[in-house]
DNA sequence: CTGTTAGCGCGTTCAT
DNA sequence: ATGAACGCGCTAACAG
């Protein structure tokens, strides 16, 4: 075929279904080659002013949008970060991811987000599909992952950030706080207040349970008094906070003392229920929440809570990654951002 | 070089920095070609049981994870959907996206999510970068987009889903409800209740303002009474709900009537403030919210609100897309999912 | 059932 | 300052 050709020609298949404008097409229109278009986009200073102008005109005329897929394949940098969170409707994770996304976006990265719903097996599967996108980094919530997941992560060779929990031996980078410490601190806070009875209401998260367990253990150690515990497997809601408090009162005869809730939402519900039943907050029953959510200081009574700086987690994680991308030789492996008890009126 | 070769050999560059295992490598280990590996993964029935086994062994041994970037480039199907929402920390959008994601994930798609923060210019920029990822579809919040954005979207030729608002002439597919109608319905509800005075508190969203405007206009038309309006540019919070109610009482002398809030969060704050000042809800002041959020039925008094089925938006959007991917010839262009007034005790 | 060949659209050399 | 050639890792025909 092509018998008369002097040099082998590449067959250009008839482009019926337009798949989108290519750099090649832009170049043709501007009278330059594809590479020049590429350069004009990645580093305009490498192209003469005249051709740059023509290229920009061609881009405008064609509505060209670069194909990041092809770019990623060629350069093996995807400008993509993937992130796994237990739940995107949980404000705690959403706020963290928002701060992270904003910072990363400013640096030219985009975020592929998935929910794992607290299930390690689901997390493992999701990690695999995320890795197939060849992200430039991956962000995980928590520090507990299946062995297979760890293996895949390590094998991928990409930076891994674990947030929202803390360990001295992270896979790679870790930004978080010690959940157990929050429980201990709350127990100490209760004892200092003079509480001699305590209960807990927790929901949803494995980390919430760890906080609760630490609270109970420490409170019992300090006072010798056992702690009544109400647990919900499902996510925290105001309704469950109410139900938890109702059970504490009805089933455990809890009518005086402090209630440690694993989230402000639960605390809010608990306060509503106790108030409705005529208990004084914090006079009869004191309540301490977790998260310092938007509403915590504005309901009645304002909720005493444990605050963690969600935005800081996101920002710090992004900054650590960005530094790593720039080839920092001394990676910040583990950062404990701590927490703070915000004393308001509910306890 | 390679002087003695009988046929041209492809130069295999020395792979020092392992970029990840390839199908080629897996195939070598299994004693088959790269394509066979590809087939084993995409359609195992096209491969003999024996080779399938060997390939799976090789995959397990190497920890191979397919490169979706390369796959997308070759097939021009990315299995990626990108989505734009005003805010990911707003439960309304988060819940919608969650439902959408889950459905799409079951079908093998992943979601690239970005926040646009109610800014059309930002949306336009974000659409461009999203389009560069060559998604199989794009989901937008709302129906108002810049002309340039519309052009890019149309030019891309990919399915576009607009959610959370309704128009008869969508870019492509539209799933939502008529915000103006909710305001009208609330006004009618108020008049039927016998309210002769009304006020509004709104925040954040352009659509919230449209709901509010429709409420005010309709209420005034029905009763002849003007409506006091409090607006916040920032997002809805309990604090702003309280402040809004405070201003209504202090600045507008509003001590009796109904308050239409653009979100349950605002309504919650408004109720707290009014209650604290000794007003009876709904006896003195009635409050109606929007969203039927998790807590709406569990605070005191339970909040009367306008409910829209967020999960249904997400699911329906996903289903419409999936049907479109399967080549449905009769696309469902515009679906109005409506809304519902949930009467509880606050109004 | 399996292999060969030819791109997908771009970044990356290496020339000029 | 610009271009030619090549390959990133995979899917899509087309052979056999």
List the helices and strands and how they pair.
Two copies of one chain form a homodimer.
Chain A: H1 23-30, H2 34-42, H3 49-62, H4 68-75, E1 80-85, H5 91-106, E2 110-115, H6 120-132, E3 137-141, H7 147-156, E4 160-163, E5 173-176, H8 179-193, E6 198-203, H9 206-223, E7 228-232, H10 238-252, E8 257-261, H11 264-276, E9 285-290, E10 304-307, H12 310-325, E11 334-336, E12 340-342
Parallel strand pairs in A: 1-2, 1-3, 3-4, 4-5, 5-11, 6-7, 6-8, 8-9, 9-10
Antiparallel strand pairs in A: 10-12
Helix pairs in contact in A: 1-2, 1-3, 5-12, 6-7, 8-9, 10-11
Chain B binds a DNA duplex (16 and 16 nucleotides) through helix 2 and helix 4.
Summarize the structure.
2 copies of one chain form a homodimer. The first copy, chain A, has 12 helices and 12 strands.
Task: Explain this structure.
Chains A, B: This is LacI family transcriptional regulator. Chains A, B: Residues 1-20 are annotated as: Disordered. The structure is a homodimer of 347-residue chains. The first copy, chain A, has helices spanning 23-30, 34-42, 49-62, 68-75, 91-106, 120-132, 147-156, 179-193, 206-223, 238-252, 264-276, 310-325; strands at 80-85, 110-115, 137-141, 160-163, 173-176, 198-203, 228-232, 257-261, 285-290, 304-307, 334-336, 340-342. With 347 residues, chain A is an alpha/beta fold. In chain A, the strands form 2 sheets. In chain A, strands 2-1-3-4-5-11 form a 6-stranded parallel β-sheet, with helices on both faces. A 6-stranded mixed β-sheet of chain A has the order 7-6-8-9-10-12, with helices on both faces. In chain A, helix 9 (206-223) links the parallel strand 6 (198-203) and strand 7. The first copy, chain A, contains 12 helices and 12 strands. Chain A folds into 3 domains: 23-66, no CATH class; 80-177 and 311-338, Rossmann fold (3-Layer(aba) Sandwich), CATH 3.40.50; 179-307, Rossmann fold (3-Layer(aba) Sandwich), CATH 3.40.50. Chain B binds a DNA duplex (16 and 16 nucleotides) through helix 2 and helix 4.
